[in-house]
Every structure is written in C-alpha cells, then in structure tokens.
Amino acid sequence: MSASKDPKPLVIVYHADCIDGAACAWGVSKAWGVDTKTDHNVTYIPYGHHDTEEAERKIHAALKPDSELYFVDVAPNPGLLDDLMTPGPDGKAKTEAIHIMDHHKSAVAMLKDYAPPETTGNAPKLEMLIDESKTSAARMVWEHVMPDEPVPPVLDVINLMDGDAAGLTTPMDFAAAALIDTRDISNIDRALIALRGLAKLTFNDMAKKGKFIAADQNTKINKLLANAQFVTMQILPDTDPIAVPVVNGDVKQFGRQVSERLVSLGKQTGSGVAFAWFMQKNGSISMSIRTDGSPDAQLIADHLKQTMGVTGGGHAGAGAVHFSSLFEFSRQMPFHMPQQTTQEAAINRKPLPPAIDPGKYLH
C-alpha cells in the first residue's frame, strides 16, 4: 500500500448499513493512508442487496484505468465481475486491479469456480480472498492489508458481533457491542469518524460505556417479540410447511441481543427460525433470518431466492433476503396470529423467550 502522496484513485465498495462493512472500508482506506472524509481521490460505494442496480451504476461511473477497486464484506456476482474484467472498447482494462474480500457463504458459492472471461485486450489484476470460516470481514481485511499493524479492539468486538452475534457470550461483550451499535454509520463520513473514535477505546472502555445501552435494548426487544405474528411456509426444499414467527423491525435498531432472542423464539415455537422485516428507503423490504445454524439460514435464504424470486444470502446462523416491494412481500408472506397455525397447541403452551436482566450481571 502507498501513502496519500500516491494519486492512484481508490474505489471501495462495502456492505451497506453494516458495521462490519464500514469497518472494512475504513481498514482499506487507512492502509492507503486516505481514511479522511476530505480525500477526493477515494470513492466509497455502499452495496446493498436491496438496491444492487444503483450500486453497480456508481461502480462503473467511478472506475478509471489506474484505479484500485475493492469489494469488502460483499462480493460482485459473476456477471458484474465478468463485465469489470472485460476490457473497454479501446482494449484497455477498466481498472488496474480488483480486490474481493468477503466471508459470506453466499460469496463462496457464487465465486468458488469463477474464471475470468477470455479477452484479447488488457484485463485487471484480480485478487480474491473469500473465507467463510471468518466470523467477520473487518479483521480479515485489516490483517490482509496491514499485516504489521495491531488490530484495534473495536474490530475484535465486531468479530464477535457479526452475523448471528453468537460470539457475544458475556454481559461485557453485549455492552461493548451495544456501544458500537449506537454509532452512526448512515454514511461513510460518519462511519469513518465513528470508527476512528472507537479505535481509541479499550474493550473495557467500550463495555463500561455500553452498560446501560444494553439494558435499554433489552426492553425494546421484549416489546418487539411480544407482537410476533406467524407465516406458514416451506423454508427448505422437500420439507413440510411450518409456522415461522415474524416480527416487524430492523434488527440493527435493537442491538445484538436480538439475534439470540429471535433464535430462542424460533426454537420455542417449534420452527427453529425467526424472521424480522422492515422497509428500506427505496420501498423494498428486507427480512433478516435468524437460527442457531440448524436449520441453516443461508440455505433458507437460497430456498427463498429460488421459490420467491428474492435476493440475499448470509451465514449458517444469520441471513437476509430482500423483496422488491411491500406488495410483493405481503403476497409472499401472508401473516396470521398464533391461534390460526397448525402448531397452535405448541405455540400457546410455550412463552416468549425469557428477558435478559443486564442488571444481574453488569456491575
């Protein structure tokens, strides 16, 4: 990597609305010495599965023959990658190099057998680092682009937080994660400021500052789960339809305890899975999938992609799919109350997951 003296254009495509994706973007820009919002030689492009066309349009617009293109915590589909690897009409490469660093199972499945198209002109250099064994992408990216720099504690916490948040096991873990989740990552300028600030804190600092935030999040989760509805549907191929609990809320607004609580709700209602949905700004619907890995959330997402025409992906314990509109979501996901399900007796006998009392542990 070179410092900011190098005028090489940098294009960083990162997982939108995700602290792991934002931290990846920060790591790459820091490695190049340009992690400030005033540097106009860097283009940051949030890539959300609910609006891929807009992101791809921005990617094409930002490319220059001497640019370095990074995809972090997200991977291009083979069609987009083919297009980026194909020389322009003048026979020149559209960008100097393409770096893909991701940890999602869907990225592995999508690109494991990828071979660049045969061309007669110049093609970019291609580097792919896709490792589904990694809990998060941020620490993986940091260690790859800055191997001699110590990993800041905030990335260690993000590593515990990402996906189904299964790495968070102690009250201090949840408290540190709660603090991180309060930081504004709605745009890259705010995300970079937030991450630079968090990088100055120790784990204990984050846990202490996040103690009461975690308690407030738990109260909100109780209210969210109390309003669960159900949808009876097939979640995997060659299986019978089951009643799956569904709540209306963006999981990112409830902290990392919500993943554990949704998993418990799914187990206690007999399906082993729970969904949480909300509307994006562009009118599409995003639906999070939470399990303990059995059933596999990634396989559920794949099945819904095949049967409902949605987009998405994920990991064994956490995934997400995206519907084009509220109408399409309502058509595919007809809700009903628990007493209307085929699992009526089981559902009515089993209470909602018990609330976590942070005050019992956080002193």
What does this structure look like?
It is a single chain. The longest helix has 24 residues, at 203-226. The protein is an alpha/beta fold. It contains 13 helices and eleven strands. It has helices spanning 19-31, 52-62, 78-85, 105-111, 138-145, 153-161, 171-182, 188-198, 203-226, 257-268, 297-308, 326-332, 344-349; strands at residues 10-15, 42-47, 68-72, 97-102, 125-130, 229-233, 242-248, 274-279, 285-290, 311-314, 318-323. Mean pLDDT is 88; it is low at 340-363. The N and C termini lie far apart (44 Å). It has two domains: 10-212; 227-352, Diaminopimelate Epimerase, Chain A, domain 1 (Roll). The protein is globular, with a radius of gyration of 21 Å. 39% of the residues lie in helices and 17% in strands.
Quick overview of this protein structure:
This protein is of the alpha/beta class. 39% of the residues lie in helices and 17% in strands.
Architecture blueprint of SSEs:
Blueprint: E1 10-15, H1 19-31, E2 42-47, H2 52-62, E3 68-72, H3 78-85, E4 97-102, H4 105-111, E5 125-130, H5 138-145, H6 153-161, H7 171-182, H8 188-198, H9 203-226, E6 229-233, E7 242-248, H10 257-268, E8 274-279, E9 285-290, H11 297-308, E10 311-314, E11 318-323, H12 326-332, H13 344-349
Parallel strand pairs: 1-2, 1-3, 3-4, 4-5, 7-8
Antiparallel strand pairs: 6-7, 8-9, 9-11, 10-11
Q: Bin the helical content.
A: 25-40%
Secondary structure class reads alpha/beta
> How many domains in all?
2
Side-by-side strand order of the widest sheet: 6-7-8-9-11-10
Question: Alpha-carbon distance between the termini?
Answer: 44 Å
How much strand content do the residues show?
A: 15-25%
Biggest β-sheet strands, sense, barrel: 6 strands, mixed
Counted beta strands: 11
